[in-house]
From TrEMBL:
Name this protein carries in UniProt: MATE family efflux transporter
Transmembrane segments: 29-52, 64-87, 99-121, 141-162, 174-193, 199-221, 254-276, 288-310, 331-358, 378-401, 413-432, 438-456
Upper lineage: Bacteria, Pseudomonadati, Pseudomonadota, Betaproteobacteria, Burkholderiales
Keyword terms of this UniProt record: Membrane, Transmembrane, Transmembrane helix, Transport
């Protein structure tokens, strides 16, 4: 049984080189992630003059879109371990590009299904008890937004595949251009320009279609320009067949392979997203002041989550490549460096939440609000717990990325569900009965802490037993122990 070498067996320059490479890749991925997160912020600024119903309609549909894109991005992460292992072979780059091509095919199907699901949601919206004004505006915004889900799904595939191919920098630049175009298109399409009148909230949907579509077109052009001559794709079967299957059969098998690894990842991301949505619903039962304070704390959690999300994408990429090289020493370095950087960031963020919660809450609360003092009283203890919650959450995200690179996704899905929903949301509901609004945050901390411990133990076991990680994807089974 192969074990990782201790840290002292590696030259110091190898560790420093790994730290520099991880930070460089994380900075590029961070730029792309921030660019995408700026787009809904631009929506708020653009729609504010149209009134509260427009803001509510955009927020409702944007939350549905965010859930879909998180799920799609999670499924696409299955490409990382497969392409990383393929890159360890002599013709690895061509094989990795073919895996990316299968990911794009799968994302096309997911984008079309997402568009159909958005249309079904719009038709069902009047029966969900929403304000008629919000329903009417959502019906105007939704059709173009549903069309934008197809190029958005393609972007999810490229966001996973391009860093593996060493193309993280052009990816970040294109995503930044996408965000800047979205801001400009928002103003022109929503409010218009002399002498043309704007389209109102309907223009926001066309802005998403334009910006996502242009980004997808640029990435397709760049990918075609950088492509290398392709080689036949091997079929991912554990034993050779007497006659090789045709291309369509091989493609179906690879897509099924992506689904078998990726669907649990997408489900984990959706579970995490819906946990925060569930906590918000619980908090709403304690009044508007508690809900406003909760929103302030969640905003800080969301902002700080950008860093561990970039780190998780980094460790997924670099660890997949290290496993493809079948290098235990590099596997060890990648995981230790990523976890060290993530722990250092969360130590700083946790200290800020613990030592200066009042100033952090004040920065998010309007100075002219008549209930500012009451909201501060509620937000300060919540924010102190938010620092602990975000530490558990961020480190869990990095550990989950380690398991994804190891093609271990099914068992962690059940563990995350038990930690986030059964322990986290369940204890939040129970503690809210006795501790009030603060009990909801205490319960979420319990759920995230339990999940962190379970994932840490599983990662440790995976790294101590490397024999299951090193076979090439065409001879390995995508299964969890």
């Amino acid at each position: 049984m192969k074990r990782l070498l201790p840290a002292t067996a590696h030259p110091r320059h190898d560790w420093l080189a790994e730290a520099r490479a991880s930070l460089d890749l994380s900075s590029q991925l961070l730029l792309g992630q921030v660019s995408l997160m700026l787009m809904p912020v631009m929506d708020l600024l653009t729609l504010a003059p149209l009134g509260a119903p427009a803001l509510a309609a955009a927020g409702l549909l944007n939350s549905i879109t965010a859930l879909f894109l998180l799920f799609c991005f999670g499924v696409m992460q299955a490409m990382a371990p497969l392409a990383g292992a393929a890159l360890g072979s002599p013709s690895g780059r061509a094989l990795a590009r073919q895996i990316l091509g299968h990911g794009l095919t799968l994302s096309t199907a997911m984008g079309l299904l997402g568009a159909l699901a958005m249309q079904a949601f719009l038709r069902a919206l009047p029966a969900l008890g929403q304000d008629p004004a919000v329903t009417q505006l959502a019906s105007a915004y939704g059709p173009a937004l549903s069309l934008a889900l197809l190029p958005a799904a393609w972007l999810c595939a490229w966001r996973v595949g391009y860093p593996l191919l060493g193309q993280a920098r052009p990816l970040a630049r294109i995503l930044l251009a996408c965000a800047l175009l979205h801001g400009l298109a928002n103003v022109l399409l929503v409010h218009g320009w002399p002498p043309r009148e704007g389209l109102g909230i309907q223009g926001l949907g066309w802005s998403y279609l334009l910006s996502y579509g242009l980004a997808a077109a640029l990435l397709a052009w760049h990918d075609r320009k950088a492509a290398v001559p392709s080689t036949p794709m091997p079929t991912p079967t554990p034993t050779p067949t007497p006659t090789p299957p045709d291309d369509a059969t091989a493609a179906r098998r690879w897509i099924l392979r992506l689904l078998s690894i990726g669907l649990p990842i997408g489900a984990v991301m959706a579970i995490e997203y819906t946990l925060f949505a569930g906590s918000t619903l619980l908090m709403g039962r304690h009044g508007s002041l508690a809900l406003a304070a909760h929103a302030v704390c969640l905003q800080w959690v969301t902002l700080s989550f950008i860093i561990p999300l970039a780190m998780s994408n980094t460790v997924l990429t670099r660890l997949s490549l290290a496993i493809g090289k079948e290098d235990p020493d590099e596997i060890h370095r990648v995981v230790v460096v990523a976890c060290t950087i993530a722990a250092a960031f969360h130590a700083v963020m946790g200290a800020c939440c613990l030592l200066m919660p009042a100033p952090m809450a004040q920065w998010m609360l309007p100075a002219a609000s008549p209930d500012r003092a009451a909201m501060l009283d509620l937000a300060v203890p919540m924010l102190q717990l938010a620092g602990l919650l975000q530490t558990f959450n961020g480190l869990s995200v990095v550990l989950a990325a380690v398991l994804r690179a190891c093609r271990d996704t099914r068992a962690p899905l059940l563990q995350v569900f038990a930690g986030y929903w059964l322990a986290g949301l369940g204890s939040a509901w129970l503690l809210a009965q006795t501790q009030g609004p603060l009990g909801i945050w205490q319960g979420m901390c319990l759920g995230f802490g339990l999940t962190f411990v379970v994932l840490l133990r599983r990662v440790r076991r995976r790294l101590l037993h490397l024999t299951d990680l090193l076979p090439q994807p065409e001879s390995a089974h995508a299964q969890s122990r």
